[in-house]
Design brief:
The protein has about 375 residues and is mainly alpha-helical. Helices cover about 75% and strands about 5% of the residues. α2 packs antiparallel against α5, α2 runs antiparallel to α7 and α5 runs parallel beside α7.
Length: about 375
């Protein structure tokens, strides 16, 4: 179970929790059916239990379909939502009529409890399928108003009917608000996760652009000069001029200089200062919404050692951004048994590098 839960992303965990919260409402309603109908005794309690269980199952299915619709996985469950509304109204009205037609106290108690529970859970789940959220207050108000009309029509005193209507309005409104807020929170989590992924992609893209700009600055001018001198050497060679050799010698010199400058740029990436690299990693991770903690307990290190460790920090940071679902990353540098040990830990994915990538090859270098 821990592995199944751990493989889920944060939004998927919130979605699973949300779905089972609504299923928990249905299970609560179904589980309460037996104790509510117990005062009626057997077999009179059986129809009541069956009606409540069917209503609870309909609530569970409606909640599941409505959440799928919210996530864009299926079409709007219009008919199912209407069906739940009609069944809720029929059961509630039937409970009121049953309570008004008998003087038996157990029947009245059971009918009143079924009435309140069906309206509360039915109204709370019903609003999940409302396309226009602005209509939700009208739907909740309709439950309260309908309660007042039915109870007054059944002969209940106006003052008592008003109190029952107000209670239904408050309970249904609370359940509806809870449902809408929960779905809004789920949508917000998905949007924030998408924004975090976008920030991570932008951070990686910005690093690539910086490297591209450096190479352009190094090679752009030299390549232009090489092209011009090569054209000049061709023209001189066609005329039999000895200066063509000098021009090609100059082209060779510029090409060798360009190679040295490119190597210098690459060394600037692969032999970076460890402190600078850790600071850059922290900046990029925090920009992507990941808390980064750094602990360095090692003295000044040789350039070759810093180069190796800095490259590991860069590759690990890239993988945390691109392949992980991390909220926290810890970078630790210390000594153990005469060796320098670098540890990069995160609470997201544990992958070091995807198949076919160049990260592990870079680490071997």
């Amino acid at each position: 179970m821990r592995q199944w839960w751990g493989r889920k992303s944060t939004p998927a965990k919130v979605e699973t929790y949300t779905r089972w919260s609504f299923h928990g409402f249905a299970l609560t309603e179904a589980g309460a059916a037996v104790p509510l109908a117990a005062p009626l005794g057997f077999p009179d309690a059986v129809p009541v239990v069956l009606v409540v269980v069917v209503h609870a199952a309909l609530c569970a299915v409606t909640a599941s379909r409505a959440l799928d619709w919210t996530r864009g996985l299926r079409e709007h469950p219009r008919r199912l939502t209407y069906t739940l509304g009609v069944v809720t109204a029929v059961v509630a009205v039937g409970a009121v009529l049953l309570a008004g037609r008998t003087e038996a106290e157990p029947v009245q108690q059971t009918a009143g409890a079924v009435f309140a529970m069906v309206l509360a859970f039915g109204g709370g789940i019903l609003v999940l399928g409302v396309r226009n959220r602005a209509r939700i207050p009208a739907a909740v108000g309709g439950f309260g108003l309908g309660t007042g009309v039915v109870t007054v029509a059944d002969g209940m005193p106006v003052a008592v009917a008003l109190g029952v209507s107000l209670a239904v309005l408050l309970i249904t409104g609370f359940m509806a608000f809870t449902s809408v807020f929960t779905v809004w929170l789920l949508d917000a989590v998905y949007e924030l996760d998408e924004a975090r992924e976008n920030r991570a992609r932008l951070a990686v893209a910005e690093e690539r652009l910086r490297f591209g700009r450096d190479l352009h600055d190094v090679l752009g001018r030299n390549l232009a000069v090489i092209a011009l001198k090569s054209e000049l050497a061709v023209e001189l060679a066609r005329r039999g001029r000895p200066e063509a050799v000098d021009q090609m010698t100059e082209v060779e010199r510029i090409a060798q200089e360009s190679q040295r400058e490119v190597r210098a740029v690459v060394r600037g990436y692969r032999r970076a200062d460890l402190g600078v690299e850790i600071a850059g990693a922290r900046s990029v991770l925090e920009a992507a919404g990941i808390t980064c903690e750094v602990s360095v307990a090692a003295p000044e290190l040789p350039a070759e050692t810093q180069s190796a460790l800095a490259w590991v920090v860069r590759e690990a940071t890239t993988n945390v951004l691109r392949h992980g679902n991390a909220r926290r990353c810890v970078v630790t540098v210390g000594r153990k048994d005469g060796r320098v040990v670098l540890t990069v830990e995160n609470d997201g994915a544990r992958a070091v590098g995807g198949p076919g990538g160049s990260g592990l090859a870079g680490l071997r270098e």
